[in-house]
Amino acid sequence: KITKELEEEMKTRELVRAIQEERKQMNLNLTQRVRVVSAWVPSDKKLIQWVTSKAQVGELTKGKFNVRKV
């Protein structure tokens, strides 16, 4: 059975994958930070911290998906 916690973790991993794909399309290196707007944002603070560190996100807000260089 998939718990709400597992579902949130799965969505978080999908978000990181989407951010990393956008970073690749933008030809950004691993140290360049980005601003991310996403239709879905994790509610768990630890997952938000994981997203920001894993994908070099400087700002994460809710809205239509968009990744911009800081």
Task: Tell me the structural class.
Answer: alpha+beta
Q: Give a count of the beta strands, DSSP E runs of length 2 or more.
A: 3
Report how far apart the termini are.
40 Å
Gyration radius, to the nearest Å? 12 Å
Poorly predicted tracts of residues: none
Major β-sheet annotation: 3 strands, mixed
Order of helices and strands: HEHEE
- Alpha plus pi helix count: 2
Average of per-residue pLDDT values: 97
Which range does the strand content fall in? Answer: 15-25%
Q: How would you write the strand order of the largest sheet?
A: 2-1-3
Helix content: 40-55%
Instruction: Characterize the overall form.
Output: elongated
Secondary structure: elements and pairs:
Elements: H1 4-25, E1 34-38, H2 45-54, E2 57-62, E3 66-69
Parallel strand pairs: 1-2
Antiparallel strand pairs: 1-3
What does this structure look like?
The protein has 70 residues and is an alpha+beta fold. The protein contains two helices and three strands. It has helices at residues 4-25, 45-54, and strands at 34-38, 57-62, 66-69. A three-stranded mixed β-sheet has the order 2-1-3, with helices on one face. Strand 1 (34-38), helix 2 (45-54) and strand 2 form a beta-alpha-beta unit. Helix 1 runs parallel beside helix 2. The longest helix is centred in the first third of the chain and has 22 residues, at 4-25. It is elongated. The mean pLDDT is 97.
